[in-house]
Amino acid sequence: MFKIAGFEMTIIQIAATVIGAGFIIFVHELGHFIMAKYYKLRVEKFAFGFGPELIGFTRGETRYSVCAIPLGGMVKMPGEDPDSSTGSPDEFYSQKWYKRLVIALCGPLMNYILAAMIFAFVIFFWGLSKPSDQPVIGEVVAGYPAMKAGVMTGDRILSINGFEIKNWMQLAGYIHSHSDKALALKIQRKDKELEISVQPKFDKASGTGLIGIAPDAEIEKEGFWTSCFYGGKMTVIQTVMTLEYLGQKIVRFEKPDLAGPIGVVQFIAKAAKSGMRDLLGFLAVISTALGLFNLLPIPILDGGHIFIALIEGAIRRPLNKKAIQTANLVGFSIIICIFIFATYNDIARLVN
Asked: For the residues 266-279, what does the mean pLDDT come to?
């Protein structure tokens, strides 16, 4: 057993975590590779992992490799930035704007396809988790009043301030509308009845009181096509929720709670410890997030390439190389700032 991010994990769980995360990045690069080959660009190297090459072979102008550290992949195309471009017709920046757009777009698109497939796989084999209407607590959120007061997963809420609770809608409605005073919860925990006092926390975003609880879940088995439908739907929902969250933080000038490499490893480790279902589900979330992040119109990201290609398509001429170089420098600075901010959040989360 090894300890990672506070969780004891077996070698198999560690391997599944590392390879799973690397596979998501590899699939992203595979999207770029497929379209580059389709448009007959010169691809010098296509690799799974990075670091020293373990095995590999050369076919045509491309070196195919499996490298020692299975945490991603790479596609090396000549002329991927204006500095290295020589004007050769088989280079990236020598292509028409719409070809560069498609090549850049296919990386994030593959992440979305992978996420939908993983979600569908989980739903088909483990079932679809749907919130129960019973007033039974399925999750207690760390740092919120319910956990601090001693509320536990599996507790059934019988009444609040003497008001009988029959379903989750009643429970949520009462808590949301009573954020100004402490709530006396009558709880059934196994064969015991307890009374716990909880002071709700007012949430500015929703304008309601919260104590940090989520309903229990009921698992329903689904057929193949229904699983595929829900797999795609969950990918869309994950994207919309992320955009809404970021939009709200920007509008309110609030600090978003971003996770960097340390946080991602911590969450994957937790999911791997919980079981294969949770690990696959979280990998689908990461794949969606990676696809969305790369669609942001930040220079040097895929979204930046897409944005530049669209501008060139609109003005019907290539952009000035110096302007692209300046944009790439700005984009690199933005990425570094995001990385530092996310890593700071990770460290603060671990300390707390």
From this structure: 77
Maximum pairwise Cα distance, the chain: 78
User: Is the domain of 26 the same as that of 99?
Assistant: yes
7 and 119 assigned to the same domain: yes
Choosing from 219, 235, 263, the residue where a domain stops is 219
Residue 318 lies in a domain: yes
CATH number at residue 187: 2.30.42.10
Separation CA 76–CA 304 (nearest Å): 18
Contacts within 8 Å (CB) and 24+ apart, 299-302: 299/324, 299/327, 299/328, 299/330, 299/331, 299/332, 300/328, 300/331, 300/332, 300/335, 301/331, 301/335, 302/104, 302/105, 302/107, 302/108
Q: Is the dihedral of CA 307, 308, 312, 315 positive or negative?
A: positive
End residue of a domain, out of 201, 219, 237: 219
Half-sphere exposure of 187 (CA within 13 A, CB side): 20
Domain extent at residue 288? 2-42+77-127+252-351
> pTM (2 decimals)?
0.79
Q: Counting Cβ atoms within 10 Å, is residue 244 exposed (0-12), middle (13-18) or buried (19+)?
A: exposed
Count of domains for the chain: 2
Most confidently modeled range among 77-91, 193-207, 305-319: 305-319
Q: Do residues 263 and 346 both lie within one domain?
A: yes
Per the CB < 8 A criterion, the answer to whether 70 and 49 are in contact is yes
